[in-house]
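not sure who needs this but someone in the group chat was asking about DUF262 domain-containing protein from Hymenobacter aquaticus so here u go. i didnt clean anything up, its just raw.
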Amino acid sequence: MKAGKKLAVTPEAGTLTVERLVKRVVKGQVRIPAFQRPLQWGAIQVVALFDSIYKGYPIGSLLLQKRAAPAELLSIGPLTIQAPDTPDAFWVVDGQQRLISLAAGLARKLPVPEKPIDAYVVYFDAQNQTFASPPYNGSVPSTWVPVAQLFDSAVLSEWVYGWQHVHDAELRGAVFEAGQRLREYNVPLYTIETEDEEVLRDIFNRTNTYGKKMSWPDVHAALFGNKGKYPSTLPQLAEALEAEKMGSPTLRNLLTYVMASRGLDASRTLAEHERRGDEAMVKMEDAVHDALPVIVRALNFLRQEAEIPHVKLLPLALPMAVLTRYFSLFPHPSERSLELLTRWTWRVLLGGALFDERTILRHGVLTLEDGNDEMQAQKLLRLIPHELPGQLRYALPTRFDARAAESRLALLGMYSLQPLLDTGEPVDLAELLASRKKAGLRTIIPAKASRSELMTSPANRMLLPGTQPTNEQQDLFEEDEEGQYQRGISYEQLRQLNYADNKKFLASHAIDEPAFAALQQGDAETFLQRRRNIVQTAVRNLGDRLAAWGQPDRVSIDQIVAKTLQAE
């Protein structure tokens, strides 16, 4: 903060009981801003907070900013609150995690779950006078009382007299005392009225001391991200990318890409940049909004040039960060530049053992600068090896994990074979992954049919859509409880096909004639070995073609001519 800069109004110090504070949250009078990344506190921290209040320990003060708030539907843990518009709401600048934990724990609807479905399911153990999350098996001791039951004294009194331990005076007294301690605990708070973000940041940095610290960039984005253009927050950016049907990276990765687009070292956090005096927040002004077209260009490049149709199939996040920086500088690079970028992308994906990802991320972003797009692409190529040692050639993993780079490479290899539906139409993987109605991947041989070690490998996976999984929350790459989907071509139907009539369909799924013969004979081991080799070869061929290992990365004729003309 600049010397001599003061608040127009002195911060107002005061206290509120937990009961009054939580009720104000429920009424929408206290607003907890929506954060761009998940809440940091887990069950351990939430339980510790209730224990501290019960014991009368200090939990730190809250810092509130008084300003107007619109009517909106708020989501706070398990709570949904229809908040009215108000000219003088209190926005939480410091203390979000504490207040969310208190509101979500105490004001949640009864009955409270008997399993730890979220971090805010907290019980008071009346026998030991302690707090705990319920066990995973849902076997809650009869002497445990949910903290939400303690929040309203009248409701608690009525509940206790129907409790099976009502005649145990000691337990009954412990429950009433716990409720009183929680409700009447005084939380210190400071209220400020200022729109000066520099002042607000300085106060936050000096007072943010309790528990797991939030960074100022997190708080700033949550408080002010909704001002101005759309998208202006990371969740809005993710939403906008979903609308493009290219897939949306995680919020953490999106933040990395946004930072990279501004030329910041994406291997560091925003908070680290702030401490280093890098003027990160100045550079990040409107960065989320400006990043949308840049990220779309990078995703289009991956799909059209690098043959990666969807962000869910991107083996590593690293290339996207550097590509985002590149396309922020060069929205329309030349064909030669696109070719060089494709080589760089695939050399990074296949040669990860040859370099440190964090180092390449840092140098890849920082080495790029305004100038000639082709020369900048060549600078990226000089950061990584030009050739791939034979011992590092791609090998199909023994276990499929849709989050792992090797498994995603296997899927890209399968996709390079141009998989077909059983109708003969091509599988539109990008559309499939963008859809919530179908599953994009399935096992071929059911678990009960073989004990081969390859049963869990990508060799036993097929890029062929089925219907929506039984659990709608499952990832599109996960199978249902039976390991198969209910519709689409099944294992038995696959075995009954006539090879001659379906040769093209089978070949598009890495099943040649020897593999199909083994499948029909029930020889799972031979089938999976054969298919493993085909998929592995497909990945190697794809990588060799696009990475162009050992090929000259020299400048194009156009660049040579341009340089010659400049020299003249």
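also Residues 35-39, 208-212, 468-488 have pLDDT under 50 and may be disordered. if thats useful
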